[in-house]
Design brief:
The chain has helices spanning 13-29, 61-70, 72-87, 101-109, 144-152, 170-182, 208-222, 235-245, 258-265, 277-285, 298-301, 329-332, 336-346, and strands at 4-8, 34-40, 55-59, 93-96, 114-118, 133-135, 191-194, 226-230, 249-254, 270-274, 289-293, 308-312. With 357 residues, it is an alpha/beta fold. It folds into two domains: 4-155, Glycogen Phosphorylase B (Rossmann fold); 170-353, Rossmann fold (3-Layer(aba) Sandwich), CATH 3.40.50.2000. The chain has a six-stranded parallel sheet with strand order 3-2-1-4-5-6, sandwiched between helices. A six-stranded parallel sheet has the order 9-8-7-10-11-12, sandwiched between helices. Helix 8 (235-245) links the parallel strand 8 and strand 9. The longest helix has 17 residues, at 13-29. The N and C termini lie far apart (60 Å).
Length: 357
């Protein structure tokens, strides 16, 4: 039985969160094992300091890309030290959850004698050529969390076990708690609305005016004020939503770190967001979550949690595989009333919002 196991899931944020479901089950079945996780810098905050991990290896993609032209020797040296760090852990087995060329190369370079990955029909870019043990997937839609469990199957992990967790820094908790208290907001008695997505996923965004309409409805019908979240490059969008919502919403504090965003979402009574990492964070944290899905199939990519509702588009072209769209009618077809109904299904009573009578 392997005692030193490395999981590789570099990105994206949602996929790393999906991997945490598998990590919890793996830790539950391997209490004494040495578990490592290899992740890119942009998602490293999700696993750094994680209670179920013994070691985190950070693939410094951003620094290495920016330094290739200015300091190539420094990049080579840094990458070499990174690989030595991974190999020195002497992992018995690697489970490649990434499934592409980069994941396959890193799997092979880890030095692990046993390498588990996807069979050729299911991986990308020849990933299977780097593995010693291949896993096939069933036909039909398979959620990304369930794909993680399929890859962990050879290690005896067949389904959920344990509790998926996130490591939130106490400094971030203190900062967000202070910001909320300054606005007179108490845990469970406000909603978090997240209007942004990555620039790459702009076609998955719901319209700012619909978020504002939802905020007004939540305030009117449920007594819930809304906090509009934003990170780097998203302040104008958050300001627009808050401005259109009037007294029903406020622009929240800047969350430049993923763990700060977690600390803001965790005490909320409700979270609403599109197909983006923040929505998966909210679901994993146990916050009642409404996910808005247009282009992608929620049966595969939807948030996974106990208190989750997904609102989908009623258009023929959804879901699709487009990576960009100039007229995302799938998102435009989602009405604020649809989202409000889903939200109300997650809110037990109006007393959650303080029941103003």
């Amino acid at each position: 039985m392997p005692s030193r196991i490395l999981l590789i899931r570099l990105s994206a944020i949602g996929d790393v969160i999906h991997a945490l479901h598998g990590l919890a089950a793996l830790r539950a079945s391997r209490r004494g094992a040495h578990l490592g996780f290899l992740v890119e810098d942009r998602a490293a905050a999700l696993v750094s300091g994680h209670p179920d991990l013994d070691r985190v290896h950070v693939f410094q993609r951003k620094d290495w890309q920016s330094g290739l032209l200015s300091s190539p020797l420094a990049v080579v040296g840094s990458a070499s030290r990174f690989l030595s760090e991974v190999r020195n852990e002497r992992y018995d087995v690697v489970v490649d959850l990434q499934g592409n060329l980069k994941g396959g190369v890193l799997s092979r370079l880890s030095g692990a004698p046993r390498r588990i990955g996807l069979a050729a029909a299911f991986g990308k870019e020849g990933n299977h050529r780097f593995q010693t043990e291949l896993v096939s997937l069933p036909e039909g839609p398979l959620h990304r969390v369930d794909r993680v469990f399929k890859l962990l199957g050879p290690l005896g992990v067949s389904g959920p076990a344990g509790t998926p967790r996130l490591a939130i820094r106490q400094e971030d908790r203190a900062e967000m708690d202070a910001c909320l208290a300054a606005e007179g907001l108490t845990p469970g008695r406000f909603a978090v609305l997240h209007p942004a997505t990555s620039a790459f996923g702009r076609h998955k965004r719901w319209m700012p005016e619909r978020f504002a309409e939802l905020a007004r409805a939540l305030h009117r019908d449920q007594g819930l004020p809304s906090v509009i979240t934003w990170g780097p490059g998203e302040e104008d969008l958050a300001g627009r939503v808050a401005g259109m919502a009037g007294d029903a919403a406020l622009k929240g504090p800047r969350t430049s770190r993923l763990t700060a965003l977690c600390a803001l979402i965790e005490p909320a009574g409700l979270f609403v967001g599109a197909d983006t990492g923040a929505t998966h964070l909210a679901a994993l944290l146990g916050t009642p979550t409404v996910g808005l899905f247009g282009p992608k199939d929620p049966k595969i990519y939807g948030p996974r949690g106990e208190r989750v509702e997904v609102v989908t588009a009623d258009v023929e072209c959804s879901p699709c595989t487009l990576r960009k769209c100039d007229d995302p009618i799938c998102m435009k077809s989602i009405e604020a009333s649809d989202v409000l109904a889903a939200a109300e299904g997650l809110l037990p009573t109006r007393s959650l919002a303080g029941d103003e009578g």
